[in-house]
Design goal:
- Helix content is 79%, strand content 0%.
- It is an all-alpha fold and 314 residues long.
- The chain has a single domain (2-313), classed as Na+/H+ antiporter like fold.
- Helix 2 (43-65) crosses helix 10 (195-205), helix 3 (72-99) packs antiparallel against helix 4 and helix 5 packs antiparallel against helix 6.
């Protein structure tokens, strides 16, 4: 009986920590929204800050997350996360083909994209870092590999019907993938970096969490409030993205007796809102960029409530 009480207490404490971390991230998001509304962060700055995050701070955060003593267990878990991420994305692709048949192509393409691609890097890594620390980022970086590969291939095909001819080059030179390769080499061969170098890498990498939330808040500020909440399809897609898919993934994975961290990381990253690049791809390849922006905004707002809810459920 005492063991049951202790287990329940542990779950309650863990849930409260998750809720608190999500609230902290939300408050930083509000700072970004306020800063953009007051033009402290300009439209040009949002793009430059996004480049800084994607090309500098997030890669360095990933490299610093691989600073662990080598163990076969971690290597097995890393391979497991990579495999499960691929399976989750393939299942999401299958779901996206059948869930939105009643909508026209322009709407269906956006909904398919946000169903397959969650904000697992831009927002997911900071959430994992807040909850699990470096080990969460370690697994999250590996989870993002299938995301990056499929976004540059299948993601383009959703809007154009064909793959990007330069997809392979973009995949191989993507900063996130390069940082994973560097981090994995350091981890596998236990290559020690000088303390001052690792401290600098960790310091810059730690900027990722607040910077990403400031950027997300700034992007939300750019969507007109009158248009933001318009359209049933936005809520349908958001429910699929934020609730249906994470519960489906949990139902699929929980019978497999996976390591707890691996299971939690996969479910949390599946529970992230729509990927921020949905609007970029829509605009670039002739999709409905306005709808994509609203889906990102609504799903991001709703995720503040759904992420703690999903974690409490499992």
């Amino acid at each position: 009986m005492a063991g049951v009480h202790a287990a329940k207490l542990g779950v309650a404490v863990e849930s409260s920590i998750v809720v608190r971390q999500v609230i902290v991230l939300f408050l930083v998001l509000l700072v970004g929204l306020y800063s953009r509304k007051r033009n402290i962060i300009s439209a040009d700055m949002v793009g430059r800050l996004s480049d800084l995050l994607l090309q500098v701070t997030q890669p360095l955060l990933i490299v610093s997350s691989f600073d662990f003593d080598f163990s076969e267990e971690m290597l097995r878990n890393a391979g497991l996360v990579l495999l499960l991420s691929l399976v989750i994305h393939l299942v999401s692709m299958l779901a996206g083909r059948f869930l939105y048949l009643r909508w026209p192509d322009s709407t269906r393409n956006v909904l398919k994209y946000i169903t397959v691609f969650s904000n697992c890097g831009f927002m997911g890594l900071p959430v994992l870092d807040s909850i699990f620390g470096s080990i969460g980022v370690f697994y999250g970086a590996l989870y993002s590999i299938p995301f990056q590969v499929l976004a540059l291939s299948y993601g383009v095909m959703i809007f154009t019907g064909r793959s990007d001819r330069d997809a392979l080059k973009k995949i191989l030179t993507h900063p996130i993938l390069l940082s994973v390769v560097v981090g994995m080499l350091l981890f596998l061969f236990q290559i020690p970096l000088p303390d001052v170098v690792m401290q600098a890498v960790s310091m810059v990498g730690s900027m990722t969490t607040p910077l990403s939330m400031l950027i997300v808040g700034s992007l939300l500020a750019e969507v007109p409030v009158r248009e933001l909440f318009r359209g049933k399809e936005i809520y349908y897609g958001s429910v699929v993205r934020l609730i249906v898919l994470p519960l489906l993934v949990y139902a699929m994975l929980s019978p497999l007796r996976l390591p707890k961290d691996v299971l939690h990381v996969c479910v949390i990253l599946t529970a992230m809102p729509a990927a921020a690049n949905a609007a970029i791809y829509s605009r670039k390849y002739g999709g409905d960029a306005g709808l994509a922006s609203r889906c990102i905004s609504i799903s991001t707002i709703l995720s503040i409530f759904t992420i703690p809810l999903i974690l409490m459920i499992f």
